Amino acid sequence: MDNQALMQVGEAIGTLDLPVVVFPRVNAAHARHPAWQRHIDALQAGGVHLVYGPDVWPLYEPREAPARRELPWRAVLDTVDEATG
């Protein structure tokens, strides 16, 4: 892992019986990477609750998203509630 936060998330997946919620804040170029879908599949297989999809975070090309784009906090918090409820 390239930082402490990611290392903690990585260690929590599938080992601590804790719900893990991930919001991958990516653009269309990231999602086109050949490994992207395998990573999404691996997270889901590990029981991670993903906040992801065109209804939550439409993908834009790099530097083409609206300047003041709001993060999908309602979707993130709803997923946390579902994962911990």
Report the structural category: mainly alpha
Low-confidence stretches: none
Q: Taking all residues together, what is the mean pLDDT?
A: 92
Tell me the major beta sheet. 2 strands, parallel
Quickly count the helices.
4
The portion of residues assigned to helices is 40-55%
Q: Which of globular, elongated, flat, extended, rod-shaped describes the shape?
A: globular
Question: Secondary-structure element sequence?
Answer: HEHHEH
Total strand segments: 2
Radius of gyration: 14 Å
Task: Explain what you see.
There is one protein chain. With 85 residues, this protein is mainly alpha-helical. It has one domain (4-84). Helix content is 42%, strand content 5%. It has 4 helices and 2 strands, in the order αβααβα. Strands 1-2 form a two-stranded parallel ribbon. It is globular and about 40 Å long. The termini are far apart. 4% of the residues are buried. The mean pLDDT is 92.
